[in-house]
Amino acid sequence: MTAAATDPATPARQIGETLIDVDRLKVHFPILSGIFQRESGRVRAVDDISFEIRKGETLGLVGESGCGKSTTGRAVIRLRNPTAGTVRFDGHDLMDLSRGELRKMRRRMQIIFQDPYSSLNPRMTVGSIISEPLETHDLAAGKARIERVRELLALVGLNPNYTDRYPHEFSGGQRQRIGVARALAVEPEFIVCDEPISALDVSIQAQVLNLLVELREKFGLTYLFIAHDLSVVRHISDRVAVMYLGKLVELGPPSAIYDAPGHPYTRALLSAVPIPDPKAERRRKRVILTGDVPSPANPPDGCRFHPRCWLYERLGRPEQCRTEDPELRTVATDHRAACHFAEEALQSDIGVAHMATDKVRHGTPQSATAGLAAEHAAEASAAAAALDDSGTGSPNEPSAEV
Predict the structure, then answer these.
(1) Which domains does the chain have, with CATH numbers?
(2) Buried b or exposed e, range 334-373, using 16+ CB within 10 angstroms
(3) pTM
């Protein structure tokens, strides 16, 4: 994917105090069976996770499909009611808010949905879709509302005259921009980006990603960016959280997560990322996970990753991994990992994607460029000689006239 452009003149963002504080969050779904639909079990989609998001920060949340990323994002803004735990937004416990209080709080937190095709009502015009939050929160009416919608369309790079069109008249990237405009309509502080580019073509992904980065810099937004593309998450995030089977297994800055991961699962994810250098790719040590992902309705005891863990096998299957659920503990500055043997994982070179430190030149061979350079030098020399013969002299020499 094309990397988003960065502006060296853009000032560094200020990361402030904690805006979102998630403490021991659980989201379980009942399994009903029988004629009377009695509960026979529970799917533990999110099972006892804790993290924080600071003001102005982008926290990237990555993991395999079905690990609970989207459920976590929805529970954080209470689109999904948690089974247990607390979520504090700027000091307010969202679980204690009444329906009316939560309605007012929703102006400060919004979501960009994953699927740009199903998240927009096909029976509503673009103007109606974007203006609906303005009507809900009584932010604008009449001509002011129309002007606000046109302003939002221009802000996300769409023609302001498209207000009367319907969603089916737009491409996937344009629909996602409409979703971004709808989220920005109420001027929120915090936005959950639920895999906003995964359903788009690769050529469009960079455009939407650049738009999100630009809006973050312009309005000082705070993001929870959910994705499974590790390169995208590294580019946009200030910190990265790795999730596996409803649990957070690692949390830290991108430099630590990508260069020195402390959890075997994170190293397995990084080992699956191809390197655009055949020599470095051949030297890199990869690991292929065996077995299937356990069911969240019946997770294994102890560490949930141990049935597929390569480090568990290398260390001789220690009993601690089978019996004790590891806590998310500090392994370095602002870097935490949920592994009993994180120190051993840090010493391994498996999965690290920067094996080759020397720069490898690709493209036109050196011999060809050397020949071109010689031709350019000969042409420049001939031009200089012709200039001297004309009697005008070199432009850098002083004139002989008095």
Answers:
(1) 18-237 (3.40.50.300), 264-347 (no CATH)
(2) ebbbbbbbbeebbebebbbbeeeeeeeeeeeeeeeeeeee
(3) 0.80
